[in-house]
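Example record for the data management plan.
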Amino acid sequence: MSLTRRELFGGNMSMLVPSTFIDVSQFRTVPDHQEVFADQQPTDQNLIVEILESAPYEKHEALRYHFAQVNEINELNKAPDPTQKQREVHELEVKDMGCVESVYLLEDVQELAKFDEGRKGVFNVVRVMMALLRVPKHECDVLVTFNVPEAVHPESSSSMCASGDMGCAKDAWAVFKQMAASFRIESEQIFG
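Corresponding structural encoding:
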């Protein structure tokens, strides 16, 4: 997967993003605190970068907090997880990222539905990867989420993606770590 450096939030931040990804704000409204990209290829992959209030936890627990918040939002579209396992969190070395103090990563595989398809039992298997970039100087966190489908249900509205390259999911973690390590705050003006 080829990556290209893209400006985020009006050039105040940047990071490597898959070359085939396009800015979703060209098609629909995206909240000011988010940048959303989607693959032009039939893979149904997407990338979300958002600036959030700093989590009230330290180190790994801060990422687990944000992960739980996203899961709570997705709860209606998520298949039950009988294991409720604790996801392993990895720390990434911070190099030339501006005022980012620390970076934590986690990866999970979930069964998620699009729209209200979960009510019909239509779930896709999606690899969800998150990076939490802590910016305590400005009392905020930057959360990067990369969603890569591994299997698409034949009745899903994303079924056209089943013809796409689902094999890229196996390499997604390495690509995601490269994207997270490339993140850079170019200007602190974005924080006010």
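Summary line stored alongside the record: The mean pLDDT is 86.
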